[in-house]
Amino acid sequence: MTPAAPARGRFITLEGIEGVGKTTQLKRIVSALEARGVDVLVTREPGGTPTAERIRGLILEHGDEPMPASAEVLLVFAARALHVDNLIRPALEAGRWVVSDRFVDASHAYQGGGRGVPRAMIEALAGLALNGLVPDATVLLDAPVDVGLARADGRGDRDRIESETADFFERVRARYLELARDEPDRFVVIDAAQSAEAVGVAVESAVHDLLDRFNKTS
Ligand code: Z5A
After folding, report:
1. How far, in Å, is the centroid of ligand 1 from the Cα of 216?
2. pTM (global) more than 0.85
3. CATH value at residue 171
4. Which candidate, 123, 140, 130, 132, places its Cα nearest to that of 186?
């Protein structure tokens, strides 16, 4: 008898404007999952595969010529197509859970909200690159722009997107909150202006709720 295929893994994404603490809280999500016996693959966007990481470099470097929004959104989705086909989908099919620091909502927020790329164009690119893949849950760390930028300021050199204005990040944040309002079943919004420890407690509690929900539905 052929052994049954493993149950598909779950796909969790982490989003928010710069400096809200995604990198800090990612570790908390992973340890909460591993403590419950889940096999986790951690990845990030733009990037996650060797070629997608090279595209990440092109997206974030200051470069020596202007980067039109059209080129930026195409690069982001080229990296995502590689990431989905070569890393995320195979891992999910093998039964692993995948946790990604940013995914397609970042394109709606940064290229859509921030740069003004029309939503229909982002959705068309998503249709091509994702081929139906939607995160099972998205944790949105939300904090006022001045809080995120002040935290990120401590880090020195700012890449091309980090060098954007506060107004740009206000538009990004507003679009993230709009996405969360549109899909309340997928998004968990956490107040990231609290201390790192308080955010971590809220993140862990969200992970436990997700595990309970998925165990009921898998
Ligand atoms: N991008 C895009 O435009 N379109 C897309 O589709 C995708 C991405 C996928 C790279 O993302 C850029 O790509 C990003 C969007 C764009 N550009 N921007 N902005 P990234 O995720 O790699 O880089 P990032 O957004 O710049 O992440 P970040 O700045 O590293 O932020 P973070 O991970 O959210 O923060 P952190 O490193 O965890 O924390 C920052 C500092 O604050 C650090 O010193 C912490 O110790 C401290 N911290 C964290 N939490 C707290 C709390 N709660 N209180 C006090 N201090 C804290």
Report:
1. 32
2. yes
3. 3.40.50.300
4. 140
